[in-house]
Amino acid sequence: MLIDAPDLVRDRTAVATFDFDNTMTLPVYNRKKKRWDHSSEPNPIILEDMFRYACAGWAIYVLVDRPKTIGDRATVSGFIRKHDIPVTGTIYCNGWDKIDFIKSAKAIVHYDDEIADLERLPEGTVGIRVPHPEDSETDNYLLASCTRMLADAVQMSCDGMT
C-alpha cells in the first residue's frame, strides 16, 4: 500500500512506530541453539526509512517488547545513539500490549516482523511486515518492494520540503 505522504506531512502530526528486535535490528543465526536470535546489527533499510520519516516531520517511536531492565535500556538506547536515529521516544512494553500505544498515538504506520502484531493493528494504521530470514525468498522480495514504495513516497515529500 502506498501512503499519500505529502498530505500527511502538512498535518505535522504523523506518527510512525517501529518494533525494535528483528525489525530495526537484523536477526543472527545461533548455530549452537539452531535458531534465530536478536542482535545489535542494524537493519539498514529500516533505519533509512526512519530517517526519511523524520526528515518529513513525522514523530518516530521505538517499541521494545523487552522489559525495561538496566541492561535492555542500555542496549536499546546505545543502539539509537550509535546510529544517531532521530526518535521522539522509546516505549518499553514491559509485558503490556504495544498495540495499545500504537492506537493511542494514532500511528499511521507500524513496522514489525511479527505477523500476529500486524494483524491486530487498529483501523487506520498501515502495517509493514519486515522480512525475516525464515521467510521464503518470494515473501522477502514482495515485502521489501512494498517497504521501498512507502519509503519512496515519504522521500518525495521530504525532497519537496527542502
Give a summary of the structure in a few sentences:
The chain has helices at residues 5-11, 20-24, 44-55, 70-82, 98-105, 115-119, 137-161; strands at residues 15-19, 28-30, 35-37, 59-64, 89-92, 109-112, 126-129. With 162 residues, the protein is of the alpha/beta class.
Question: Can you describe this structure?
Answer:
The longest helix has 25 residues. The protein is 46% helix and 18% strand. It has 7 helices and 7 strands. The chain starts with a helix and ends with a helix. It has 162 residues and is of the alpha/beta class.
Identify the overall geometry. Answer: globular
H/E element sequence: HEHEEHEHEHEHEH
Which CATH architecture would you pick?
A: 3-Layer(aba) Sandwich
Q: Going by CATH, what is the homologous superfamily? A: HAD superfamily/HAD-like
Strand order of the largest sheet: 5-4-1-6-7
Estimated radius of gyration: 15 Å
Class inferred from helices and paired strands: alpha/beta
Helix content: 40-55%
| Uncertain spans | 1-11, 138-142
CATH top level is: Alpha Beta
Kindly report the CATH topology: Rossmann fold
Task: Tell me how many strands there are.
Answer: 7
Total helix count? 7
Approximate strand percentage: 15-25%
Number of domains: 1
Intertermini distance: 26 Å
